[in-house]
């Protein structure tokens, strides 16, 4: 398998693991599952986190400033939407495994994830705090 094929394979794996990571995170956030399911999802979550970290290292690319601008825009947008819902976001923490940042509401524990490409919010329309 040549380098290009390998890279495209890794990228597809990355996408799949990212979906697993975010999907398991969302199901755990919903918090309405049997404990056996939660256990399984935590396993999926931690496995996909490790795989994403490894893939990120393999696929490591040079610094890209344009992405940083998009990232900051997405952070701003997420903060504005959160504030409108009465949420109080804590500081942004690196979520390296998913190639982005995550912030948690200090009142209701809901979380929002941003990368240069996506905003993924599990915050309710209005804060329950
Ligand atoms: Zn909240």
Key descriptive features of the protein:
alpha+beta, 12% strand, 2 domains, 56% helix, binds zinc ion, 4-stranded antiparallel β-sheet, 129 residues
Unreliable stretches (pLDDT < 50, length at least 5) are: none
Percent of residues in β-strands: 5-15%
**Ligands (ions, cofactors included):** zinc ion
Radius of gyration: 16 Å
* Largest sheet entry: 4 strands, antiparallel
Helix proportion:
55-70%
Query: Main sheet: which strands, in order across?
Result: 1-2-3-4
Secondary-structure element pattern, one letter each: HHHEEEE
How many distinct beta strands? Answer: 4
Mean pLDDT: 84
Overall number of domains:
2
Shape: flat
How does this model look, in words?
This protein is of the alpha+beta class and 129 residues long. The chain folds into two domains: 1-60; 64-129. It contains three helices and four strands; from the N terminus they run αααββββ. A four-stranded antiparallel beta sheet has the order 1-2-3-4, covered by helices on one side. A hairpin with a 6-residue loop joins strand 2 (100-104) and strand 3. The longest helix has 28 residues, at 3-30. It is flat. The N and C termini lie far apart (54 Å). The model has no long low-confidence stretch (mean pLDDT 84). It binds zinc ion. Zinc ion binds next to loops.
């Amino acid at each position: 398998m040549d380098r290009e094929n390998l890279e495209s394979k890794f990228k597809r794996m990355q996408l799949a693991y990212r979906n697993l990571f975010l999907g398991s995170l969302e199901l755990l956030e919903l918090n309405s599952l049997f404990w056996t399911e939660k256990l399984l999802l935590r396993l999926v979550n931690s496995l996909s986190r490790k795989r994403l970290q490894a893939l990120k290292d393999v696929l490591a690319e040079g610094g890209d400033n344009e992405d940083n601008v998009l990232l900051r825009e997405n952070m701003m947008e997420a903060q504005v939407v959160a504030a409108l819902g009465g949420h109080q976001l804590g500081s942004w923490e690196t979520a390296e495994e998913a190639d982005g940042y995550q912030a948690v509401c200090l009142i209701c524990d809901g979380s929002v994830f941003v990368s240069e490409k996506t905003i993924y919010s599990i915050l309710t329309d209005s804060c329950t705090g």
